[in-house]
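2.7 Reproducibility. Because tokenized structures are sensitive to small changes in the input, we list the exact sequence used for Ribose ABC transporter, permease protein, including any N-terminal residues retained from the expression construct. No trimming or masking was applied before prediction.
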Amino acid sequence: MNVKTKRSQVVKSQSFFLILVIIVISIGASLLNPNFLTRSNLFAILQQVSVLGIVTMSMVLMLISGLIDLSVGGMIGFSTVTITKLTMSGMRLEFALVIGVLLCLGCGFLNGLIVSKTKVVPLIATLGMSYVYSGLALVISGGLFLTLTTDFDFLGRGKILGIPVLVIIFLLVTIGMHVLLRLTPYGRRVVAMGGNEEVAFLAGINVVRYKIYNYVISGALVALASLVLLSRLGSVLATVGDGYELRALAATVIGGVTFEGGRGTVFGAFLGVILLGLVANAMNILNVSSYYQTVVLGAIIVLAVVISNIGKMRS
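Resulting structure tokens (single pass, no recycling of outputs):
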């Protein structure tokens, strides 16, 4: 009976549904274009979604703990523009990278401080801070393209044993987030906090402190995503991070992580990232207009949320 119950739960899970959708899309796209399922194209998809995947892992941590961070796109722009500007002014790359990382950590700490100490709704607070970080990026860059004056391509374009480094980083971050949330006391406290903040507080969890910790961890992941993105592109605009927060949120929700907090899996969010990458790549190969791609992305998000809600209503 237990085995049947477990099988039933697997079949009804969002991850199982996503795997089926990924398989169907892969087969359909390969029938329309045989180049879709080639090794080179599959690696290209993983490369295209790696930065988004790293940012998505930070969003998983946020949503599961009952929080949200809409400032990640602004932080990416702020960090990458600052690093590039510093190298253009003659600073050594290593020092510029450290400053870029510290900026993201500081932004995360500031976000956590505002949300935890003022009781402002996280969505509103981080949305406002997104404009602050984006504005600072524009001030620093002057709205111009900035190009690195030194080589920094290993993270974004290097390979280890034929596997792109940024793909390895994405997979390691995914595994690390799974371990953090599922196999550590910290993760269990975060999940409990997301499930019911008041109960978590009564159980002795320092909710304020953990909110700040979560935003700092999110800042660290955004810093990593910024370095990978900068390494891959070599030159940036202040708006380079625009849209990452919404796509990361989309991948997370598609993967079954709920806005209510306390529910969802890292694996589901990982599948959400892969699904978005597959759909975008398939539509590019089939020469679908970018305007229609936006429509399809919105439809996928709505469908995923509807299916998730139907599953909760039945449970």
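The mean pLDDT is 88.
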